[in-house]
Amino acid sequence: MSGSRYIQQIKQLAVLLTFWPVLALAQLQPWGNYPALPKPSASGQAEQADDRHRFLESLSDAQVRAWMKKQTDFANAALANISGRDALLKRLKVLQSTEFGAGSLLEVRGMQFFVRITADNRQQLFMRNAATNAERLLLLTEIGQSIGLFTPSVDGSHVAVTIITPPGQRQSLRIIKTGDASMLKDNLEMIAADIKDVAWNADSTAIYYRKSATKPGADRGAIWQHLLGSKLETDVPVIGPGVNKSRRFAVSDIVSIRTRANSPYLLAAVQHGHNQERSLYVIKQDQLNGAASPWQRIAAPADKVRNAWLAGEQLYLLSTKKKNTGAILKLDLKTPQISAAKEVLPASSDELLDVAVARNALYIHAVEAGYSKLMKVELDGSKQEDLSLPRSGRISDLSADADSEGVLFVLEAANAAPLAYRALAGGQVRNVEVFRAPQVGFHRFVSKNLSISRPGSNKKIALTLLYSEGMELDGKRPGLLTVDTGTGLSKLARFDALRLAWLEQDALMAIVHIPANENAKQKNPNEGLDEVIAAADYLIAEGYTSPKKLVAQETTPGKRWLAQAISQRPELFVAMQSAAVLSEAVTAGKNQKSNAGGKSNVTGGNLSPYASLSAGRSYPATLISARFGLADTPIWMSGKFSARLQAVNEEKSRPALFRTDFAGSWKYDALSELADNWAFLLWQTGHKGFVLK
Fold it and tell me: What is the per-residue pLDDT for 13?
């Protein structure tokens, strides 16, 4: 071989070796190469000094929108090619169509009102005679429609129901006559979009509802009175924002009205933003006079009242004045000074959530060691007892008729569908068979509520586990860590039939419960993050799963807990799926631009999740699905976070997928998205049956 030809071959080999890492990278990325980033504009290039992806914030830029569409198409193509995904979706559809019962259970004058779901996912509102079990169908929704709320009148002759109709989720309040299931002509479409309850007057001839604000963003709406059969133009406001100049309300205040069959009073409860403490106003029904109604304030936020219930001339209060877990007070409304209220049930270690006032007693829903507890207390507090529940779980409804003894309640658990029960006057508990709970496989799975330690604190973290009976703690099974947030009842795990599709994969599920922070000004930036990391560490340390099998999912948009977790402790997880992430601080302004980028991006004293991502580290695989206009999180945050992960992740075998409906190439469907998400997570754990085709 000539020297020149030898030298030429050496050069060719050198070129091949130069590109070998790229060839190897292509082999490690069976899903293909990420869509290339567009070239930033001249102004975007100037910003790249501190943040090379900042130009992706410009949603008006045609190149950025085109990149988002390519990313969406790229992610959808990869997800569609995961074997096992279609079978997972098929199973989810079967579970969704299974009848489990839904909605509230209310009883008035011996008649029970509740909602069932049909096999084609339509909702039915029923009235059932508690004595004879005879049922009457009052309403069957159209395909796509849903029932928002229903409230029977105090005599059971009518029921008010909100019907939600897509697209745009238009909501109207209708009145049904229960005697013949006929619908009155009254059609109230100006109700507040977030309305959760309405109230009836004593003779069932009028309702009180919260009307939408006259100006968008001005306030949460006042309470109006509507006389059945009258024109909507004759409705009058009775309390709330803009009704009476001498009684002012803040923009964030939400007013609701409560009545009771055996009480001559109206009660107005005012929620101030996210605070749990209410202001309370009362008035006799015969004194109501539109905007001039002489409401009397009996409680302010400083009185620490979280809820109240009318009972004749008495008002029962849930107060946290002495202890956060709450005590029950009794106030005589003839002399309504809260300082004169008498303690009926003192505070204890049990957290009090709800009260139902029956003719014979108070029935109190409390939480003990992560499970619901039902107490029966005499109306004067002279005697109390704990009632024995059929199973450990979550009481999701509590309803008592003022004219009857005992209480109705719905009991469910993470592994048990809701069933309705009645606690009789003597304390016995019986199934009233309102809801049906078919056995679909949850009986093979254990539900366990745990209280684990929070690092550096004496506070405990609530963790719910779901796994198959007899599972060995060898760390070999996929573990899905999900996040739930809230206070009170929302801290308890509820039933979701769709979870079975995950558990049937010989996988476990863990739900970490993060308390809702009521005061945004005092919010700890690490609150939520500590809980997620502590839960992950616990699952790994106890052998439930391992870092190569642990995945995490955050379904609520506008959060940053999982983004923080994988940026600070990436070794804990193999994959993460999230709705739109809050990965950076945002300045107030027209375009909601990021406050800072690169290493200087600081949020609450800590680096933001986006800025914390650095080259040379291995990060979990990610799937981020951002829907435009949802919550307060701009979709460019999810795009930037994904783009940075694509660029810096040392572990090239773990994809960073991003998709959004903003680009117009992804049509949102809740069940299909869930199948995509779980198939992606199982694929990343190396689970059998989930590989890229």
Answer: 37
Upper half-sphere CA count for residue 586 (Cβ side, 13 Å): 18
Residue with tokens 């405990």: 460
Determine the Cα–Cα distance for residues 503 and 509; give it in Å rounded to an integer: 7
- State the Cα–Cα distance between residues 27 and 442, nearest whole angstrom: 41
Taking alpha carbons only, the member of 133, 129, 185, 138 closest to residue 159 is 138
Catalogue the E-assigned strands of 47-133. Answer: 102-108, 111-117, 123-129
The predicted model gives 43-61 an average pLDDT of 76
The two tokens of residue 115 are 């909602």
* Length of the chain (residues): 693
Residues 6+ apart with CB under 8 A from 520: 274
- Residue range 54-61: average pLDDT? 90
Q: Which residues contact 666 (CB under 8 A, 6 or more apart)?
A: 72, 76, 659, 660
Contact assessment for residue 321 and residue 303, using Cβ atoms and an 8 Å cutoff = yes
| Residue 421 amino acid letter | Y
Helix or strand (DSSP H, E) at 92: helix 85-97
How many other β-carbons are positioned within 10 Å of the β-carbon of residue 60? 7
CA 390 to centroid of chain Cα atoms? 27
**3-state DSSP assignment of residue 38:** coil
List pLDDT tens digits, range 508-532. 999 998 876 544 444 555 678 889 9
CB 239 within 8 A of CB 223: yes
Q: Please list the residues that pair with 283 across neighbouring strands.
A: 266
CA distance 495 to 447: 10
pTM, rounded to two decimals: 0.82
Whole-angstrom distance, CA of residue 584 vs CA of residue 446: 39
Q: Average pLDDT of the chain?
A: 86
> Which residue reads 């009235």 in tokens?
127
Contact residues for 543 (Cβ-Cβ < 8 A; gap 6+)? 473, 474, 475
